[in-house]
Amino acid sequence: MSPFYCMIMKINIDCAGCYRKIREALLKIEELESHLIERKLGRVSVCGEFVPQSVAIRLRKMINRRVEILEIKEAVVGSRETAGNGGHHGGEGGGGGRQRVMVAAAACNK
């Protein structure tokens, strides 16, 4: 299993069609837990358990546009037990995954 990363990429987003193409491509990549497209800045932030270079290459092939990696951060999250099931014993997992995404997104935006 890959570590939890937060990566910022620069992609030229000219029009609504480009935005839609990028969004659809990001939604097809299963390793990504969250993404943020900043259209005016031409930046795309993604978080999840993935290999950063392979996600950038896959995205470039899917959208047929240049993808430049600006920043990669490995998010440090609490122990797997606490993050995996939200600290509860039994029942559903709680919000562990949601908490991890929020922590990673905060780390990515610093």
Task: Give an overview in words.
This protein has 110 residues and is of the alpha+beta class. It has a single domain (4-108), classed as 2-Layer Sandwich (Alpha-Beta Plaits), CATH 3.30.70. Helices cover 40% and strands 27% of the residues. It has four helices and four strands; from the N terminus they run E-H-E-E-H-E-H-H. It has a four-stranded antiparallel sheet. Strand 2 and strand 3 form a beta hairpin. The protein is globular and about 40 Å long. The two termini are 26 Å apart. This is HMA domain-containing protein.
Number of domains in the coordinates?
1
- Across the major sheet, the strand order is 2-3-1-4
**Shape estimate:** globular
Beta content: 25-35%
Give the low-confidence spans: 79-95
What structural category arises from helix and sheet content? alpha+beta
Mean pLDDT level: 81
Give me the CATH fold name.
Answer: Alpha-Beta Plaits
Q: Roughly what percent helix? A: 40-55%
Give the ordered list of helices and strands: EHEEHEHH
Please summarize the sheet with the most strands. Answer: 4 strands, antiparallel
Question: Roughly how many Å is the radius of gyration?
Answer: 15 Å
* Count of DSSP strands: 4
Number of contiguous helices = 4
Distance between the termini: 26 Å
Give the class-level CATH name: Alpha Beta
Protein name: HMA domain-containing protein
GO molecular function: metal ion binding
Organism: Dendrobium nobile
